[in-house]
Structures are given as structure tokens and as C-alpha cells.
Write a structure and sequence with these properties.
Elements lengths: L1 H40 L6 H10 L3 H8 L11 H50 L2 H6 L2 H39 L1
């Protein structure tokens, strides 16, 4: 199942990358909102440079320093159209991240079920080759219970633990890169 596992890894990477992009884009929307609030507090008709000089002259140098790194238009309030565009992009990114995660889990469930099916066939073949003496010493119910429990544990590990390991690994790498 190496091709399907490669697809799962690619889907995990895309899901993590898209999920990590969300807070960054949300930060951009917050910046637009804050720039609008700050711009509305400045007198209209001034340029940004004039507003900064006015703030420095009045002794508010920290606010002036903060405004130098912002895209503020004095007298203009919040640009709700820009915020709407950013939030629509954010919704699309989260939707793609969710779809990628769903496809990842769906593909991994298929891999897990095919693997478990193969294991069950191999166990059945093995049990049919065992000598009758083995069945005299062990009850059939005990054998089937042990086999079923072990195979179900393997299926759960493949489907959940492996997915969590892959996703957590790429999330850790992605967060370190973003930092």
C-alpha cells in the first residue's frame, strides 16, 4: 500500500500547512481592523507622515513609532470589504484543510481495512494448517477471540495511532517553521 501511504502523507502535509496558514491570515484581518481603528482616530485630510509628526510633537512618540509600520490612512475607518475578503479566503483555506484531513482519514481507513483483510486471510490459512492436537489443547472460542482481538488492535493502531503520529510530526515541523 505504498502509493496510498504516500497519498496519505501528502494529504497530511497539505492539511497541516493549510491549518497553520489560518492564524497567519486571521492576523492579517486583525491588522486591517486595528489599522482602521487607528486611522479613524487621526484627523482627516492629513497624510500619514503629517499625522506621525503631529503625534511626535504632542509627545506620543510610541504611537507614532507604531504607526510607521502600519498602513494607516488618517480619517478613514475600518475597511470592512477588505476584512470580508480576508475572512472568505480564511474560510476557504480551513475548508480545504478539513477536506484534506477527511481524505487523509478516508484513504487510511481503506489501507487499514485492506491490511486487516489480508491478515485475516493469512490467519485463517494458518489455523486451517494447524494439527488437530492443537485444537484438542486449545478451545476454538479462545483461539478466535485472541485472533480477533489482536487483529482489531492492529486495525485501530493503523487507522488512528499512525494517523496521529504522521499529523503530529508534520504539525511540529510546521509550527517550528512558522516560528
Amino acid at each position: 500500500h505504498s502509493r496510498q501511504l504516500a497519498i496519505v502523507v501528502v494529504l497530511a502535509i497539505s492539511s497541516v500547512i493549510l491549518g497553520l496558514m489560518g492564524p497567519r491570515i486571521l492576523g492579517h484581518a486583525t491588522n486591517i481592523l486595528f489599522e482602521g481603528v487607528m486611522g479613524k482616530q487621526l484627523p482627516a485630510g492629513l497624510t500619514k507622515a503629517q499625522a506621525i509628526e503631529m503625534l511626535r510633537a504632542s509627545g506620543r512618540g510610541q504611537i507614532a513609532d507604531m504607526l510607521t509600520g502600519m498602513d494607516v490612512v488618517p480619517g478613514v475607518g475600518i475597511d470592512f470589504a477588505a476584512i470580508r475578503r480576508v475572512l472568505l479566503i480564511l474560510m476557504g483555506i480551513y475548508a480545504l484543510s478539513g477536506l484534506s484531513g477527511w481524505l487523509q482519514h478516508y484513504t487510511m481507513a481503506g489501507i487499514s481495512q485492506r491490511t486487516v483483510y489480508g491478515l485475516r486471510k493469512e490467519v485463517d490459512a494458518k489455523l486451517s494448517r494447524l494439527p488437530l492436537k492443537y485444537y484438542d489443547d486449545n478451545t476454538r472460542g479462545e483461539i478466535l477471540s485472541r485472533v480477533s482481538n489482536d487483529i482489531d488492535n492492529i486495525a485501530g493502531t493503523l487507522q488512528q495511532s499512525l494517523m496521529q503520529l504522521i499529523t503530529a510530526m508534520f504539525t511540529l515541523i510546521g509550527v517550528l517553521v512558522m516560528m
